[in-house]
Automatic annotation (TrEMBL), chain B:
<dbReference type="Pfam" id="PF02653">
    <property type="entry name" value="BPD_transp_2"/>
</dbReference>
<keyword id="KW-0812">Transmembrane</keyword>
<dbReference type="InterPro" id="IPR001851">
    <property type="entry name" value="ABC_transp_permease"/>
</dbReference>
<keyword id="KW-1003">Cell membrane</keyword>
<feature type="transmembrane region" description="Helical">
    <location>
        <begin position="147"/>
        <end position="168"/>
    </location>
</feature>
<feature type="transmembrane region" description="Helical">
    <location>
        <begin position="278"/>
        <end position="297"/>
    </location>
</feature>
<feature type="transmembrane region" description="Helical">
    <location>
        <begin position="79"/>
        <end position="102"/>
    </location>
</feature>
<keyword id="KW-1133">Transmembrane helix</keyword>
<dbReference type="GO" id="GO:0005886">
    <property type="term" value="C:plasma membrane"/>
</dbReference>
<keyword id="KW-0472">Membrane</keyword>
<feature type="transmembrane region" description="Helical">
    <location>
        <begin position="32"/>
        <end position="48"/>
    </location>
</feature>
<feature type="transmembrane region" description="Helical">
    <location>
        <begin position="240"/>
        <end position="266"/>
    </location>
</feature>
<feature type="signal peptide">
    <location>
        <begin position="1"/>
        <end position="22"/>
    </location>
</feature>
<feature type="transmembrane region" description="Helical">
    <location>
        <begin position="55"/>
        <end position="73"/>
    </location>
</feature>
<keyword id="KW-0732">Signal</keyword>
<feature type="transmembrane region" description="Helical">
    <location>
        <begin position="109"/>
        <end position="127"/>
    </location>
</feature>
<feature type="transmembrane region" description="Helical">
    <location>
        <begin position="198"/>
        <end position="220"/>
    </location>
</feature>
Length: 338, 307, 328, 499
C-alpha cells in the first residue's frame, strides 16, 4: 500500500470541528450551474449523475453537463459564452488548455459569474477561478508509479504511457512518475516516456504491443496515466502472458474489470463525482452571494485512491466519505458566509 | 524502389535489434498492426481512383466497429451476423455518399466531410465514452490467430488487396472507374457513366472500410469512440506515397501496401530504440520525403510536369 | 460561368440560418456573449481558410497549416518571453518565421517536383517533432504564458471602443476582425488586380501551359506556400491572443476547417479558381451552424449529427434552387 | 437514315445551334462545313447523345428518338470521332478502342479478344501500332488514328468524324479515306467535318453548310457546288481577296542561329538560322522532331552540345520566361489543350498572360482597362467568336481555341516567333487571315520559324524550307511559292536515302 506523501494535502485535516456550523444554501433557484469538461472522456461521466443530484439536493435553478468542447480551448471558450447567453451563471470547468484557462476564467469572472476549476488546476502559480477542486495530477501519477514500484518489489524496469506530450497536465504526470522513480535511488529504471498514445485505442494498442515485443522481457511494471493506453496495456500484458504489473488511472468499468480479472494490478481512482457535486454546491453559494471565498483561487485536493483487487468493491464508500469531508471543509475554512 | 526501401528497412531493424526483430513474436506483432493501415489506404485509394476523396474513412470505420461491438455485446447478435450487418452498412453508407455527390453535385470533399461529422456523432451516440469489449471470443481469437507467425488478419488484408488489384486490372467496372478518374470527358464520350463510377467507388470504399472495421473489432481489446480517430491522414499517406494521384485515374495497390509497411517500420523502430515521440515524427517526415524524392528521381524526366 | 451566384447562395444560407437560430434562441443576438466571440472565431478561421486557399490556387495543398501556425506562434512566444518585445514586433517576427517555413516548403516542392500533399505532410511531421522539443526545453508547461501589453485589449476590444466623435462602431464586432479584413483585401487585390496573383491562378489552372507562357511557375509555387505560411502564422497569433497563450498545440484544429472554408466558398481543389469572400462566407456558414446548435442546447449525442445534416441539407437546397434558377 | 430537324442549342451567351438541320443518307459520305464556331461539333455532340438539344427533333430510320447518352447512341449504331482528343492516357491502345463495350469473359475483361479486335481494326486502317502500347506514349497523330479505330469499333452504321484529319499526315489521311469509302459503299452513313476543302471534295458526295448555327445549304450533292461557292455560303458574304504584298528579301544578320545542336531528345547536328523579316519553314513528317527542337530551344529539353545564338550572342535559355523577357522569343505550341490554354480560365487571361510583364505597374498592378483594350484588339484582329472576354476558354469552339492560343503570342510582341502547326482546325477564311497576319508580321520585321505539316501552308508562307527527318535536318530549299515545284522537291528530300 502507499503512504500519503507530504505534498498530498490530506483533505480530512481540520474539517470536522467548525466554528460556524454547517452552511445551508438558502436560495439556489437563481443559480444555474454549467459543468463543462474539456471534451468527452470516461473520467467525466460521473459528473452527469452528480449534476442531476446536486440540482435536486440543493434546489438549484438548473445544472447542465455539456461535453461539446471537443478538447479545443477555443471551442470551450465559445461554449462557455453560449451557456452564459442561455442564462447559466456559475461554471465548473475542466480547462482544455491549463495555460490558457486562466484567461477564460478571468473573462468569466469579469462578467460576474462564479467559476470553479474542476478536475484540473490552471498551470502556473495563479488560479483566476474562485477555487480549484481537483486531484493533483502530479500526485496521482506519483501514487500510481509508487504502487507499481511496490508491486514490482521496489526494483526493475518501469514504463510510463501517457497522452498529449505538449499538454501541461501531461508534463505534471511525467514529473510525478519521475519523482517516484527517483526516490528508489536507482533501483528502478524508467524507460523513456511513451507519450502521445492516447489519441485512440489502436494507437495505444500498437504502442503497447511494439513495446512488449521489443522490451517485454525486461519490463517489470507499466504505469499508464491516460485512458486508452491503460486499456491497451491491460489487454496487451494479458495476451503476452508476461508478469508485468500494470497500474492504470481512473476507474472506468473497463479498467475495474481488468483489475478484477487480474490483468491490471491497480488503478488510481480520482473523485470526479465529488468534484461536480461539491463544486456545484459551492458555486451556488458563491453565485447567490451568500458566501465569498476567504482566499480566492484556493486549491483543494479532491482526493485520489489506490484501487487494487482487494478494495475494488469498497473504495467508493471511502471516496464518498471524502467528498462529504471536502464539503465540510468548505463550510469550515474556505467560505465566509453571511 | 519502395520494395527496396521496405526490405532494407526491415533488415536493418533486424540487425539493429541483434536479431530479436526476426523472432516469431516480433514478426507477429509487426504484422498484426499492418492490416488496418493497408486497408484504410486501399479504401482511400479506391476513392482517389475516380478523383474523389473520402474524408469519412476513419469516422465510418469507427462507427462500424462500434456498431458491431454494440450489436454483439449489448444486443447479443452472433458474430457472423454482426459482421454481415457491418459490411452491408459500410457499403450502404458508401453508396449513399456516392449518390449524394452525384445527385447534389456538391463537392465530394464537402459531402464526405459532412458524412464524417455525422458518423462521428453517430459513433458517440452508440457508445458514449465507454469501451465495449464484451463480445465474441471467437472473433477475438481470429484476431490473434496466426499461421507461421503471420497473423490471419494480415493475410486477410493481403487478400483484400489482391482482390482490389484484380478489380482494377481486369474487371470492367474497375477499368471504367479508372477511365472516369483519368479523363471524365473522354470516359463520357466512350459511354462510361462517371456518375456510376463515383457511386461505385464510394460504395467499394465503404465496403473496404467495413472490412477494416471488422479487423479492428477482432484485434482490439475493445472498441470505443476513439477508434478511427487517427485514420484520416494515414489513409491518404499510404496511397499517395505509393504513387496514387489525387486527381484520379490511378490504382496503386502494391504501392499502397508497401507505403503502409514503411510507416509501420518506423513505428517498430520507435519501440525498438525507445525513441522520443518527437524524434519519431522527425523520422517519419524524413522517410516519407526521402522515399518520394528517390522514387521521383528514378522517374524519367520527360514524363509530366510538376506536382 | 460567373462566380457571383454561389456567393449569393452562401450569403442567403447564412442569413436564413441566423434567422432560424435567432428565432429558436433569441440569445443568438446577444452582442457580448454570442456575436462578439462568433465574429472573432470567424475572423480567425477565415485567415486559416485563406492560408489554405492560397495554395489551393496553384492546385497544391498545405497539410501543415496548423503546424506552421504553431511554428510561427512559437517564435512570437519566444520573442515575448525571451526578448520582451512589444506585441506587434513579436507578431512580425513570428510572421517572418511562418513565411520562411512556408517558402522553404514551397522551395522543396518546386525543386523536387514531389506532390505538395506529401511534402507538406512530411513537413507537418517534422514540425510536430520540432515544436514540442523547443517548448519542453524552454517552458515549464509547454506554453509561453507572458502576455505583452495590448494582448488583452486586442482580445476584448470591439469596434464599440473605436469612436469618431460620437459615432462608435458596433460592440459586436471585435477589433481582431481587422486582422482578417486586411489579408482579405490584400489577397483580393493580389488575385484580381496584379500580375503575380493572376500568375498563381494560371499556374494552378494548367502548370504546363503556364510554364510555356513564360510564367515562372517554380517561383509562384514558392510564393503561394510562403503566403500560406504567413497567413497560418497570422491565424496562430489570432488564436493565441483569443485563448491566452502561445502554446505548442496552437493550430491543431486548423486542418479540416481550412479546407472546408475555402472549398465551401468556391475555391477549386484543382487550382485556378479562388474566392476570398467565399472563404469568409464558407467559414461563417460552418461556424454559425455550430454556434446555433450550441445555443439551442444540443448535446454531444446529436451535435455532430445535426452539424453534418444541416450542412448537407443547406447545400443541397442551395444547389437545387440554383439549378431551378438556371432553368427558368 | 438519320435526320436532325431544326435543332436549337443555347449556351449561356451563345445560340450554338439555331435551327440546324441535317439529313444523312445511308451509303453516302456527307460533308458538314462551316466556319469556326458555326456549331458543327455541337451538332455532332447532339447526334451522339453527349448533349441534348433545347428544341428540335432527331429521327433515326424515320422514328423520333431521344439520345440520352453516348451509350444509347452507340446502341443506335452511331460512332464518332470527336474534335477534341478523348483517350485515356494510361490505357493501352486496344483498351481505348474497346472502352465503349469492353469484351467480358468470366466476369473479367477479355484482353485477348480485345487485342485481336483492335488489331483487326487497326489493320483495316493499315496502321502499324502495337495494341498493347499505352496511349500516352503515342504521338499526336498516332492518337488520332486510335480515335478513328475507336469509332469503327462495334460496327457503327453511322460514323460521325469531327475533323479526323486535323493532325495526321496526308498519307494516313489517304488510308482513312479508303476506309471511309469502303464503309459508305457497304451501306454506312458517314458525316465528315473538315476545314480542308480538298479532302472534302475528294471523298464527299453530299454537303450541308452551317452558318451561325443555321443550316444554309441542306444536303445537296457536292458536285453541284464550286469550292468558292461553298466558302461564300459558310462566310455569308463575299470574301475579300487575300493580299500578300511582296516582302523585301531579309538582309539583316540572323537574329536566331542554331549551330550544330544535339539534344537529349535525340537531335543531332541541327543548324539553322532565321533573319528578321524572314519566314523559315520547318517541314517534316509527324514525329520527325520539330516540336521537340522548338522546346529544346526554349530550355524545356536539355541541349547537349552545339550553340544557340540570339542576335549574334551565344545564349543559354533556361525557360520560356527568359526567352520571352530577355530574348523576345515566343513559341506557339501545337498542343493547345495541354500546353497552350488555360481551359478553365477566362479568354481574357489566356490572351493577356504574356503581356502582364509589359503592362504591369508598381507592385505588379495590372490595369484592367489596358488589359481589356489589348485583349479586345486581338479578339477582333483574329475574329475570335465568343460571348464575352470573360467566357472560359474551354467553352470556345475548337478553332476559336486555336486562335486564342495564337493570340497570346501575337500579343506578346516578340521579335522572334516559333509557330507550331498554327492552323490546325481553323476554317478557310480565318486560315487566310492567319496567313496574311503571319506574312504581315514578317513584313514588319519579325523573324518567324514556322513548323507546319500542311505543305500548302508552308509553300504559301515560307521563304526557305528546311526539311527534317529523324531529328536531323536533311536539306534546305528556297521557296518560290510555286506549289508543284516546291512540294515535289520537299517530298524528294524527305524520302532521300542519305545526304
Ligand atoms: N459548353 C459550352 N459552353 C458555352 N458555349 C459553348 C459550349 N460549347 C460550345 N459553345 C459555343 O457554341 C458555338 C458553336 O461551337 P462548336 O464547337 O459547335 O463550333 P464548330 O462549328 O465545331 O467550330 P470549329 O470549327 O471551331 O470546331 C461556339 O460559339 C462555342 O463558343
Ligand atoms: N511511337 C512513338 N512512341 C513514343 N513516342 C513517340 C512515338 N512517336 C512519336 N513520339 C514522340 O514524339 C516526338 C516527336 O514529335 P515532335 O512533336 O517533336 O515531332 P514533329 O516533327 O513536331 O511532329 P508533329 O507534327 O507531330 O509535331 C518523339 O521524340 C517522341 O517523343
Ligand atoms: Mg468543332
Ligand atoms: Mg510538332
Amino acid at each position: 500500500s502507499t503512504r500519503p506523501t507530504e505534498s498530498a494535502a490530506v483533505p480530512t485535516a481540520a474539517s470536522t470541528a467548525t466554528a460556524s456550523g454547517p452552511v445551508e444554501l438558502r436560495e439556489g433557484s437563481k443559480v444555474k450551474v454549467a459543468l463543462v469538461p474539456g471534451g468527452a472522456h470516461p473520467y467525466f461521466q460521473p459528473w452527469k449523475e452528480a449534476a442531476r443530484q446536486s440540482a435536486a439536493d440543493f434546489h438549484l435553478g438548473g445544472v447542465v453537463f455539456n461535453e461539446t468542447a471537443e478538447w479545443d480551448q477555443a471551442k470551450q471558450n465559445n461554449l462557455l459564452d453560449s451557456l452564459a447567453a442561455q442564462g447559466y451563471n456559475a461554471f465548473g470547468v475542466f480547462g482544455v488548455s491549463p495555460t490558457d484557462i486562466n484567461t477564460t476564467f478571468g473573462d468569466l469572472k469579469s462578467k460576474g459569474f462564479a467559476v470553479a476549476s474542476l478536475a484540473s488546476c490552471p498551470a502556473g502559480d495563479t488560479n483566476e477561478a474562485d477555487f480549484c477542486l481537483s486531484t493533483d495530477v502530479e500526485v496521482a501519477a506519483y501514487k500510481a508509479a509508487k504502487a507499481a514500484i511496490d508491486a514490482m518489489g521496489g526494483k526493475g524496469v518501469l514504463v510510463h504511457l501517457t497522452g498529449n506530450n505538449v499538454d501541461a497536465n501531461t508534463q505534471r504526470r511525467i514529473k510525478g512518475v519521475d519523482k517516484a522513480v527517483e526516490e528508489t535511488s536507482g533501483a528502478v529504471k524508467l524507460l523513456p516516456v511513451v507519450a502521445d498514445v492516447d489519441k485512440d485505442l489502436q494507437t495505444a494498442q500498437k504502442a503497447v504491443a511494439d513495446l512488449l515485443a521489443a522490451r517485454g522481457k525486461e519490463i517489470g511494471g507499466i504505469v499508464s496515466t491516460a485512458y486508452n493506453p491503460a486499456v491497451a496495456a491491460a489487454a496487451g500484458v494479458k495476451k503476452a502472458g508476461l508478469p508485468i504489473k500494470v497500474v492504470a488511472i481512473d476507474d472506468d468499468p473497463e479498467i475495474l474489470r481488468a483489475i478484477r480479472e487480474g490483468s491490471a494490478y491497480a488503478t488510481i481512482a480520482q473523485n470526479p463525482r465529488g468534484q461536480a457535486y461539491v463544486g456545484s454546491w459551492a458555486l451556488a453559494l458563491l453565485q447567490s452571494q451568500q458566501c465569498t471565498m476567504r482566499q480566492p483561487g484556493v486549491v483543494i485536493d479532491s482526493g485520489s485512491f489506490l484501487v487494487t483487487k482487494e478494495n475494488v468493491d469498497g473504495y467508493d464508500t471511502e471516496r464518498r466519505k471524502t467528498s462529504e469531508q471536502i464539503k465540510q471543509r468548505f463550510a469550515a475554512e474556505l467560505l465566509s458566509c453571511r | 524502389m519502395l520494395i527496396a526501401i521496405c526490405v532494407a528497412g526491415y533488415l536493418s531493424l533486424v540487425v539493429a535489434s541483434g536479431g530479436a526483430f526476426a523472432s516469431g513474436n516480433a514478426v507477429q506483432t509487426f504484422f498484426q498492426f499492418l492490416p488496418v493501415p493497408v486497408l484504410i489506404g486501399l479504401a482511400q485509394m479506391i476513392a482517389l481512383s475516380v478523383g474523389q476523396l473520402n474524408l469519412a474513412v476513419g469516422a465510418l470505420g469507427g462507427f462500424l466497429a462500434c456498431a458491431m461491438g454494440v450489436l454483439m455485446a449489448d444486443l447479443g447478435v452472433p458474430a457472423p451476423a454482426a459482421i454481415v450487418i457491418g459490411l452491408a452498412l459500410g457499403a450502404a453508407v458508401g453508396a449513399l455518399t456516392g449518390a449524394l455527390v452525384v445527385f447534389t453535385r456538391i463537392n465530394g470533399f464537402i459531402v464526405t466531410l459532412a458524412t464524417m461529422t455525422i458518423l462521428i456523432g453517430a459513433q458517440y451516440r452508440l457508445v458514449g465514452t465507454r469501451t465495449v469489449s464484451d463480445y465474441s471470443p471467437g472473433l477475438k481469437e481470429f484476431g490473434q490467430a496466426s499461421v507461421l507467425n503471420i497473423p490471419l488478419v494480415f493475410l486477410l488484408a493481403l487478400g483484400v488487396a489482391a482482390l482490389v488489384a484484380m478489380f482494377f486490372r481486369a474487371a470492367a467496372p474497375g477499368r471504367r472507374m479508372l477511365a472516369s478518374g483519368s479523363n471524365p470527358l473522354a470516359a463520357t464520350l466512350s459511354g462510361v457513366s462517371n456518375d456510376r463510377s463515383v457511386i461505385l467507388a464510394h460504395t467499394l470504399s465503404g465496403l473496404v472500410v467495413a472490412i477494416t472495421a471488422v479487423v479492428t473489432v477482432a484485434v482490439s481489446p475493445g472498441v470505443n469512440r476513439s477508434i478511427g480517430g487517427d485514420w484520416l491522414l494515414p489513409s491518404f499517406a499510404a496511397p499517395i506515397i505509393g504513387g496514387a494521384v489525387l486527381t484520379g485515374g490511378t490504382a496503386v495497390v502494391l504501392g499502397t501496401v508497401l507505403a503502409a509497411f514503411i510507416v509501420r517500420l518506423v513505428d517498430s523502430a520507435r519501440a525498438e530504440f525507445s525513441l522520443q515521440p518527437s524524434w519519431v515524427n522527425f523520422v517519419v517526415g524524413a522517410v516519407v520525403l526521402g522515399t518520394v524524392v528517390l522514387t521521383r528521381a528514378r522517374e524519367t524526366r520527360r514524363s509530366g510536369g510538376s506536382s | 460561368m460567373s462566380t457571383r451566384k454561389p456567393l449569393f447562395g452562401l450569403l442567403g444560407l447564412i442569413v436564413v440560418l441566423v434567422v432560424v437560430f435567432g428565432t429558436l434562441s433569441p440569445a443568438f443576438f446577444d452582442e457580448r456573449l454570442v456575436l462578439f466571440p462568433l465574429l472573432r472565431d470567424i475572423a480567425i478561421y477565415t485567415v486559416v481558410g485563406l492560408a489554405q486557399m492560397v495554395v489551393l490556387s496553384i492546385g497544391h495543398m498545405n497539410l501543415a497549416v496548423g503546424r506552421m501556425a504553431a511554428f510561427s506562434a512559437m517564435f512570437m512566444g519566444l520573442s515575448y518571453d525571451r526578448l520582451h518585445l512589444p506585441l506587434y514586433a513579436g507578431l512580425c517576427i513570428g510572421l517572418l518565421a511562418g513565411a520562411a517555413i512556408g517558402a522553404f516548403t514551397g522551395w522543396i516542392i518546386a525543386r523536387t517536383g514531389v506532390n505538395s500533399f506529401v511534402v507538406t505532410l512530411a513537413m507537418d511531421f517534422a514540425l510536430l517533432g520540432l515544436i514540442p522539443v523547443v517548448y519542453t526545453a524552454l517552458t515549464a508547461n509547454a506554453a509561453f504564458t507572458v502576455k505583452p501589453d495590448g494582448m488583452r485589449e486586442l482580445r476584448q476590444y470591439s469596434l464599440g471602443d473605436v469612436c469618431l466623435g460620437n459615432v462608435c462602431g458596433s460592440p459586436a464586432v471585435p477589433q481582431m476582425m481587422l486582422l482578417a479584413v486586411a489579408p482579405m483585401l490584400a489577397l483580393g487585390y493580389l488575385y484580381h488586380g496584379t500580375r503575380p496573383g493572376r500568375e498563381l491562378l494560371l499556374t494552378g489552372s494548367n502548370p504546363l501551359a503556364a510554364e510555356l507562357s513564360g510564367i515562372p511557375t517554380r517561383r509562384r509555387v514558392v510564393t503561394a506556400h510562403l503566403l500560406s505560411g504567413l497567413l497560418a502564422g497570422l491565424a496562430g497569433f489570432m488564436l493565441a491572443v483569443a485563448t491566452g497563450s502561445f502554446r505548442a498545440t496552437i493550430g491543431e484544429e486548423f486542418l479540416l476547417p481550412s479546407f472546408l472554408g475555402a472549398i465551401l466558398g468556391g475555391t477549386a481543389m484543382a487550382g485556378g479558381v479562388v474566392s476570398v469572400i467565399g472563404t469568409f462566407l464558407g467559414t461563417s456558414l460552418t461556424l454559425v451552424i455550430r454556434r446555433g446548435l450550441e445555443l439551442v442546447g444540443i448535446g454531444l449525442e446529436y451535435l455532430n449529427v445535426y452539424l453534418g445534416v444541416i450542412l448537407l441539407l443547406a447545400l443541397s437546397a442551395d444547389r437545387f434552387l440554383q439549378r431551378r434558377g438556371v432553368k427558368s | 437514315m438519320i435526320v436532325a430537324d431544326q435543332l436549337v442549342k443555347v449556351f449561356p451567351g451563345v445560340r450554338a445551334l439555331d435551327g440546324a438541320s441535317l439529313r444523312l443518307e445511308a451509303g453516302s459520305v456527307h460533308a458538314l462545313l462551316g466556319e469556326n464556331g458555326a456549331g458543327k461539333s455541337t451538332l455532332i455532340k447532339i447526334l451522339t447523345g453527349v448533349q441534348r438539344p433545347d428544341q428540335g427533333r432527331l429521327l433515326i430510320g424515320g422514328e423520333a428518338v431521344t439520345l440520352r447518352s453516348p451509350t444509347e447512341a452507340a446502341q443506335a449504331g452511331i460512332g464518332a470521332v470527336h474534335q477534341e482528343r478523348n483517350l485515356i492516357p494510361a490505357f493501352s491502345v486496344a483498351e481505348n478502342i474497346a472502352l465503349q463495350r469492353l469484351p467480358i469473359r468470366r466476369g473479367l475483361v477479355d484482353r485477348a479478344h480485345m487485342r485481336a479486335e483492335a488489331r483487326r481494326i487497326l489493320g483495316l486502317l493499315d496502321v502499324d501500332l502495337d495494341p498493347d502500347v499505352r496511349v500516352d506514349r503515342l504521338s499526336v497523330a498516332q492518337r488520332q488514328l486510335v480515335e478513328i479505330a475507336k469509332a469503327l469499333y462495334g460496327e457503327s452504321r453511322v460514323l460521325l468524324l469531327d475533323e479526323p484529319t486535323a493532325s495526321v499526315s496526308p498519307a494516313e489521311a489517304e488510308l482513312l479515306f479508303t476506309v471511309v469509302r469502303k464503309l459508305a459503299d457497304s451501306g454506312a452513313g458517314v458525316l465528315f467535318v473538315s476545314h480542308k476543302l480538298e479532302e472534302v471534295f475528294a471523298i464527299c458526295d453530299t454537303v450541308t453548310v452551317l452558318r451561325d448555327g443555321r443550316t444554309v445549304l441542306d444536303a445537296e450533292p457536292i458536285a453541284d457546288h464550286a469550292r468558292d461557292d461553298l466558302i461564300d455560303l459558310m462566310v455569308g458574304r463575299s470574301r475579300e481577296a487575300l493580299s500578300f504584298p511582296p516582302r523585301p528579301p531579309a538582309t539583316q544578320p540572323a537574329v536566331l542561329e542554331l549551330d550544330r545542336i544535339s539534344t537529349a531528345a535525340g537531335h543531332r547536328e541541327v543548324s539553322l538560322s532565321v533573319r528578321p523579316g524572314e519566314i523559315v519553314g520547318l517541314y517534316g513528317l509527324v514525329g520527325s522532331g520539330r516540336s521537340e527542337l522548338a522546346k529544346a530551344l526554349l530550355g524545356l529539353e536539355p541541349i547537349e552540345s552545339g550553340s544557340v545564338r540570339v542576335r549574334g550572342k551565344n545564349v543559354v535559355i533556361k525557360d520560356v520566361r527568359q526567352a520571352l523577357a530577355k530574348h523576345r522569343i515566343g513559341y506557339v505550341t501545337e498542343n493547345r489543350k495541354e500546353e497552350g490554354l488555360f481551359l478553365d480560365q477566362p479568354v481574357s487571361r489566356n490572351i493577356a498572360v504574356t503581356v502582364w510583364g509589359r503592362i504591369a505597374g508598381a507592385l505588379g498592378h495590372v490595369s484592367p482597362a489596358r488589359e481589356g483594350e489589348l485583349v479586345s484588339m486581338w479578339v477582333d484582329r483574329l475574329g475570335i467568336k465568343l460571348a464575352s472576354s470573360r467566357q472560359l476558354a474551354g467553352q470556345l469552339s475548337g478553332g476559336n481555341q486555336q486562335k486564342v492560343s495564337l493570340a497570346k503570342w501575337l500579343a506578346a510582341e516578340t521579335e522572334i516567333l516559333i509557330i507550331d502547326e498554327p492552323t490546325v482546325g481553323i476554317d478557310v477564311r480565318t486560315k487566310g487571315a492567319f496567313h496574311e497576319l503571319i506574312w504581315g508580321l514578317a513584313a514588319d520585321g519579325m523573324a518567324i520559324l514556322l513548323i507546319t505539316s500542311d505543305l500548302a501552308e508552308m509553300i504559301t508562307l515560307a521563304d526557305r524550307v528546311l526539311v527534317m527527318r529523324d531529328f536531323r535536318i536533311r536539306g534546305e530549299l528556297d521557296n518560290d511559292h510555286h506549289y508543284d515545284r516546291t512540294s515535289q522537291a520537299v517530298i524528294r528530300l524527305i524520302h532521300s536515302k542519305e545526304i
